[in-house]
Write a structure and sequence with these properties.
Blueprint (H helix, E strand, L loop, with lengths): L1 H18 L5 H23 L2 H9 L5 H60 L4
Helix pairs in contact: 1-4, 3-4
């Protein structure tokens, strides 16, 4: 029963992470730490698969494969949310860059036109 509460809390945490505006260096450190923990847990489960079944029965789940499946669902959702946020952030950056390029090109064209006008005025016969 209490593992269901942990799963629900994880899903709520992912939803909060989705709503949160921008990632910080702290989030990057936490993400790296989670990946490291997942890798170590993966090695442990491969070396001693019975531990996963024992852990599953400890948290009230019948089989270790079911526990692995539930954890995978949460991890996959976290990955999808993370990639979505990164995609949105990159799209915003691309939009900002496109605006800056457009404004810079417009300023450059205006400056070229002004210089051409000055050159034409300087080459015009006086009189």
């Amino acid at each position: 029963m209490w593992f269901q509460i942990i799963l629900i809390a994880s899903l709520v945490g992912i939803a909060i992470y989705l709503i949160r505006s921008t990632p910080s260096p702290r989030h990057l450190a936490i993400r790296r730490l989670l990946v490291l923990v997942a890798l170590v847990a993966g090695v442990v489960v491969v070396v001693a698969p019975g531990l996963l079944t024992q852990l599953a029965s400890l948290v009230g789940i019948g089989r270790g494969s079911d526990l692995l499946f539930y954890v995978f669902i949460v991890a996959a959702l976290l990955y999808v949310v993370n990639e979505y946020k990164r995609s949105v952030q990159l799209a915003r950056a691309n939009t900002q860059l496109a605006r800056e390029i457009t404004l810079t090109e417009a300023r450059l064209v205006d400056r070229i036109d002004a210089l051409e006008a000055e050159l034409a005025a300087a080459n015009r016969p006086r009189g």
